[in-house]
Amino acid sequence: MFNLNSGTYLKIIFLFSFAALIGAYFIEYVLGHQPCNLCLIERIPYGLSIILTLVILILKKNEKFFIVLLLLTFVFSFTISLYHLGIEHGIFKESTVCTAKDFSENITKEDLLNQLSRRVISCKDVTFRIFGLSLTTINIVISLLFIITLTKIYTKYEKKK
Question: What's the predicted TM-score (pTM) here?
């Protein structure tokens, strides 16, 4: 791995996270590929990482604590993506997370009929690939790289003690 300082690594994570979210929304709204529920959940760590890296870079306080939070964020990202990949390859069955709709609001009979008539995006269907890889597979690789990088940053803070 490159021997950059912690701030540079964090800026790279910030830029990658920002680009990942922009790319996901571009694929959804411009190219018209609808995400499944797990794909939507996989976006959450990138949004959190943008916030956490900004906090680390701007505040420069409690950096070690926020690095751990960022590390846990990408452990979650890796885990949920691995689960999603298992569904894509038939290792796991789809759970209710994949088919659940938003029932947080009161819905009318007409709303329910409209939801039933819409096509539900299955978590096992890959609608978009880059270089033959699903976005979930790419997310696993990126999350793993970030976990390794953040572990390296954390160990640097531990050595400074």
Answer: 0.82
